[in-house]
Amino acid sequence: MPACRLGPLLAALLLGLLLGLPPVTGSIAVKPGECPELEGDANCTKACVLDEDCDDNLKCCQAGCATVCQMPNVLSEWLESRSSTHSGLFGELLAIDALLSWGSSVLRAPALLQERTGGNKPGSCPNVDIAFPQLGLCRDQCQVDSQCPDALKCCVNGCGRVSCVTPVF
C-alpha cells in the first residue's frame, strides 16, 4: 500500500481512538488523614477504588484484600505536623501543648465521631494527664467505639493517639 494512502487511514484511526477515551477531569483528589488499621475482609469486597468514591470525609482504605470507605485518622496527622519541626520528647510536648491550646474539641474527636455514627458504648473515657506523656501504645487502634472489642471504648490516650480502653462508670 502506498504511503499516501496510509496517512488518511492512520489519521482516522487515531481520531477514533481519541474520541473513544474518557475525558480527563483533573487530578485525583486525596482526602486528608490516614487510614486506620483495619481487619481484613475475607470476601475481598471492593467498596471503593479512590477517596473520591467515598461520601463526605471518608477515605478509601485497605482492609486485607478488600477496600472500604472509612473515617480517616486526622488527629495523628495533625499532631505529626505540629511535632515535625522539633524532634524527640520536646517535639511531642510542643505538639501536646498546641493541641491543648487549639481546643478541647480535638480531644473529644473520637466522642464526636461516635455521636455522629451512633456507635457510642456505655461509660466514659478515663481522664488522661496529657502534660506527662505515658508509655504504652502510641498508634491509633480505632476511630469509634464499635471498632473496639467487647465493652472497650475508643478514647484519646496519653500520647495523642486513640486506643481501645476500659471505660469509667
Automatic annotation (TrEMBL):
Keyword annotations from UniProtKB, A to Z: Aspartic protease inhibitor, Disulfide bond, Protease inhibitor, Repeat, Secreted, Signal
Gene Ontology MF terms in the entry: aspartic-type endopeptidase inhibitor activity; serine-type endopeptidase inhibitor activity
Signal peptide start-end: 1-26
Domain of life: Eukaryota
Source organism per UniProt: Bos taurus
PANTHER family: WAP FOUR-DISULFIDE CORE DOMAIN PROTEIN 2 (PTHR19441:SF34), WHEY ACDIC PROTEIN WAP (PTHR19441)
Name of the protein in its database record: WAP four-disulfide core domain protein 2
Main location: secreted
Gene3D superfamilies linked: Elafin-like (4.10.75.10)
Domain WAP: residue ranges: 28-73, 118-168
Localisation per UniProt entry: Secreted
Coiled-coil region(s): none
PROSITE patterns attached to this UniProt entry: WAP
Subunit-structure text: Homotrimer; disulfide-linked.
GO cellular component: extracellular region
